[in-house]
Design goal:
Length: 196
């Protein structure tokens, strides 16, 4: 395990991921890569999440040639259909209507890229969310109050979105929020970074 003084870079513009990474109490910078978050033909959702997390980290290696770069991306899957970020109120309403009474699988890809060597570690952490039956009025009120337009699946579980659920199932709740800190902590310990 190499000792390192390499800077830590979060390859994301997401305020949610920055807040999560702050919990580890490590100094880091962040850089938002410009990549297309599109599914390739016949690409399984698990593979898509892993590929996109690496694709987010890789462009940063040019700007930060001796750093540990964190990439993460999340794919929400309902009945083999991928639910992206809704972007509009109408699309958020449509997504939550589809999710009502059903279980959605969230696959959060995580990559730690050592830009000095080009080596990387990656994994995908699953998490399941079962929604209660939602009325149209409940969905409309929720969207108005929480504005989840930049969140896969159209909810913010760390805020009012928790009221939409019947149950949650998974080993790391931070994966649902977009950056699996348990897996990331293990990766960082391999570089003797952190942690109590």
């Amino acid at each position: 395990m190499p000792a390192t003084a390499q800077p830590l870079i979060l390859a994301s513009g997401s305020i949610y991921r920055r807040r999560l990474l702050e919990r580890l109490q490590l100094p880091f910078s962040w850089h938002a890569p410009d990549i297309a978050e599109l599914r390739q033909a016949d690409e399984p959702p698990h593979q898509m999440a892993e590929r996109l997390s690496l694709n987010k980290a890789t462009p940063c290696s040019n700007q930060y040639p001796d750093a540990l770069i964190i990439g993460s991306d999340q794919v929400a899957v309902l009945d083999e259909q991928i639910l992206g970020k809704p972007k509009t109120t109408e699309r958020a309403f449509e997504q939550l209507s589809l999710c009502s009474g059903k279980t959605v699988q969230f696959l959060t890809g995580l990559c730690l890229l050592d830009s000095a060597t080009g080596k990387h570690q990656s994994t995908v952490i699953p998490f399941h969310v079962t929604f209660r039956e939602l009325s149209n009025d409940e969905i409309t009120r929720y969207i108005e109050k929480d504005q989840p337009l930049d969140c896969a699946g159209s909810f913010k579980w760390e805020s009012l979105g928790i009221s939409l659920f019947e149950s949650l199932s998974g080993n790391d709740p931070t994966a649902l929020e977009g950056l699996p800190l348990i897996a990331l902590s293990k990766m960082l310990r391999d570089y003797r970074l952190l942690l109590p």
